[in-house]
Amino acid sequence: MRRSSTLAFTGIAVVVLTASCALNFSDYDDIDDESSTSTGAGGAGGAPPLSPQGTPCSSNDECIDGHCLPSNDDSGNICCATDCTDAKAASCGTNGKCDPGGGSCASYPAGTVCGETTCEDGALTTEVCQAGACAAGEAIPCAGGLACENDGKTCKTVCGSGVDCANEIGGAECPYPLSTFCIERPNGAVCDSDFECASGVCGTTGVGHCCSPTASCDVTGGPCDAIDCNSEGACEFPGADTACGDEQSCTNANLFTSQTCDDNGECETASTQQACPGHLECATDKTCHTACGSNDATGDTFCAAGYWCDGSTCQPARDEGSGCSRDGQCHSEECPPSGMCTSNCDLDGDDQARRDMKCGGLDCDDNDALTYDAQPAFFDTPRSNGSYDYNCDDIEEPKLNTWCSCPGAILRVAGGADGCGETGELWECNWSWFQCVPVRVLDDNVTQTCR
């Protein structure tokens, strides 16, 4: 019978066929094929399991997908789901790295330089990756307001004259040879764009005069907002005749002018009031009449109260006893057949008729608007006739008692009289003693008021 045996050497396997002759290797073990066992992945003594996506690695054969690539976060190599090629920055495509999760290839990030840098009109523009495409980035002005070099790719570093300045047309100048900057138009200079001004601000709309860096000419859309900068570079506001806020109105022969700006960017807090010119009445709710027109009752209606129309202008109404031809010519609004103005029954305008046979009212002093029937207030100064009778009851009534009584307060004045207008010491009832005692006030004196 033919028998096959495997002799184990170090790193060498020799198969010996034993038919008619045999080789004897007494120094090596004889291993039977049928009893040998192969080792596979994961078995005892076999290779370690393969790593999933995103796991750190050092070679492709460690990864389950067979791709060990640099991570896009520069943390080292990781297992990636696919092989990633570097399409180069100019494409803004894949960059040969794997996303940190290992699931896909990474691309060149936004802002990566992908093309040329050019210089035009005093500003550098570089092509960079934007949304997966290579496009021109933001223009960056050359330092110091200098112009571009003739190569169209770089900025000048010094100037020798205005021609080396980016805004030569706008008035920029080179202050001295080999200067590293150009100077722009000063505050208050005429300008047509912000770029022309040293402050970077031309008026409030980009046209006008160069504003000072400290000027704060905020424009909110209001009528009093700054409209430009002046010759000093300060904010220039609309004139004081510029309307704002409440509109003009006219009421009872008084014209309320519209609110106007105050020359400092603010709208005045309130409108002003003035009588219609020429003592005329209001023509509309916003304007006054310009003339009364006719010497009759119709013309009188064009005049303010207390005036009548002589055919062209408004004249003061006439007093009692003056000649008249119609009611409008009299203060009393009454011209009887006698042709003599009667007296007005409420001369002081306190809405109470005078106390006499003609008027039949209760006002005892028609020349004093504070004096009338049932006046509730008390006063410390007398009327023009020396009396303190303000409520027309023919009695001077003091507000404070002048004799001691409990309960109640008293005012002690000289001689014990009512003392209207006099000052004295205020007393009141002390319930503990049941007697009147002085009351301490700021100056120890109180003035007696009467009516």
In short:
With 451 residues, this protein is mainly β. Among the domains are: 3-35, no CATH class; 60-107, no CATH class; 113-183, no CATH class; 375-451, no CATH class. The protein has one helix at residues 297-300; strands at 3-8, 13-18, 30-31, 68-70, 77-79, 94-98, 105-107, 113-120, 123-130, 133-136, 140-141, 190-191, 208-209, 228-229, 235-236, 249-251, 254-256, 273-275, 307-309, 314-316, 409-412, 423-430, 435-438, 446-447.
Question: What features would you describe in this structure?
Answer:
With 451 residues, this protein is mainly beta. Among the domains are: 3-35, no CATH class; 60-107, no CATH class; 113-183, no CATH class; 375-451, no CATH class. Helix content is 1%, strand content 20%. The chain contains 1 helix and 24 strands. The chain has one helix spanning 297-300, and strands at residues 3-8, 13-18, 30-31, 68-70, 77-79, 94-98, 105-107, 113-120, 123-130, 133-136, 140-141, 190-191, 208-209, 228-229, 235-236, 249-251, 254-256, 273-275, 307-309, 314-316, 409-412, 423-430, 435-438, 446-447. Strands 8, 9, 10 and 11 form a 4-stranded antiparallel beta sheet that branches. Strands 21, 22, 23 and 24 form a 4-stranded antiparallel beta sheet that branches. Strand 14 (228-229) and strand 15 (235-236) form a beta hairpin. The longest helix has 4 residues, at 297-300. The chain is elongated, with a radius of gyration of 54 Å.
